[in-house]
Each structure stands twice: as C-alpha cells, then as structure tokens.
Amino acid sequence: MRIAFITDLHFGRLTIGAEAALLADLRAQKPDLILIGGDITQRGLSSQFRDCQKFLAALPAEWVCIIGNHDVPAWNLIQRFCDPYGPYQKFVTQDLNPQWSNEYLAVQGLNSARRMMRDWAWEQGAIDDQQIGTTKSFFAQHPDKTKILMVHHPITHPPLAPTRLLAENYQRALTEFAEAGADIICTGHLHLASVWDGKELVSGRQKPLWLLQGGTAMCDRLRGECNSYWIIEVTSGNLNFILRNLGADKFD
Fold first, then answer.
1. Degrees (nearest 5) of the Cα angle 85, 88, 90?
2. Of 2, 119, 143, 249, which residue is 20 to 30 A from 16 by alpha carbon distance?
3. Sign of the Cα pseudo-torsion (175, 180, 183, 186, in order)
C-alpha cells in the first residue's frame, strides 16, 4: 500500500508552480491514500478554503485531512473565539478528529489547533486527554494493522525545533500513543522534513516508532529546504519512507 503524506499547503501563499507540480507527481506516484497534515490555508479565509477545495477535488486518491493552526481565522477575532473551526468544517470536513481504516491500515487524525493558547501564542497547539483516549480506543480495535497517527503540531522534539513549537501535553501524548501501538506519527508545522525512529523516547518500547516530520508541500515560507512531501510504502508490515522534493518544475 502506498500513502502520500502532504502537509502545510498554505493556500494564499504558494510557491509558484508548486500546486500543479504536486498534483502531477501525486498522479504519477499513484498513492492508495493521501494524508493531509493541516495548515491548508495561510489565514483561514473563505477564498483560501475555496482554492483548497478545488485542490482536494483534483487529488487522485481518497484523502484524510486534519486542521492546522493557520486554518483557524486569523483576523476575524469574533469568529476565532466563537466558531474557530467553522470555516474548515464548512469547506473541508465536519470531522476534526478523523478516523480511517481498511484491511491493512488504521489512521487516526487529531485536531491540535486551538482558538488561543497561553501568552497569546496563536501558533501553538495542544492534545487533550479525550483525544488520547479516542486514539487508544480506535487503535485497540485494529490490533494487527499498521497504525498511523496524524497531528499538525509535533509531539516529539525534531532536530532544531524549539520546545515551544511542540503540542501542549506532548510528553504524555507520545507515551500513550506509543503504548497504544502507533507505528508512525505524522506531523507538520515546522516546514522541515525528517524521519527517525523514536522508540528510545518511550520506556519499554521495543519495535520502531517512526516519527515522520513533513516539510511544506507548496508554501513559499521555506526554512532552508525545498518544498517536499513523503511517500510511505507499507508492505507485509515493512515500512519504507521516500521523500519527494520539488526541483525547478517537478517533484522527484
């Protein structure tokens, strides 16, 4: 099974040509499922969500999407505090914590975006106890499948990432998700791509815990890297991760 993980699209602030290049490469890669890790818009504007709607309709496979902090209205403060997820739910999906499964795979998406965090840090996020419980219950229903958790804010400490960018409650969340059997944790937010085995971060963990950090697939806010996305290959329990990078006019 082939899975594409794309994140931080940021409609409203795209790298020129990136959208067409990404769609073309996804068609060529022929994923069975596309995971979208949040920040699909730049400012949570209706016009940006409409552009994203067209993109989602053009995707060549079934998709699962989660919300990111940029998808909460930035300038309409009344809406941000009274109905922070309304625009996303109107244009993308009502489900803020989506679940997906087939005979091979179980995917749990979580909403880590919040209307406000401490110290007015709008870019930060959190995972609450209810979300942890939901994930544990869902994964328990799929004991023999490859289990993927997708959340926008990192719950581990990638290289060069300051702790303030991690989701609140991240330490407990990481432990609980690992104990629930998560095989891959997909995160975004940082615009930096990496993958590593984080089993040593969880006491008693024996099998790999793959921490897959997505770069930005289309945004021009780059942090020393080009636009990129991941292909995940799942074959008889074996996992392979392939990074697709945007060159002059195409991903390879």
1. 105
2. 2
3. negative
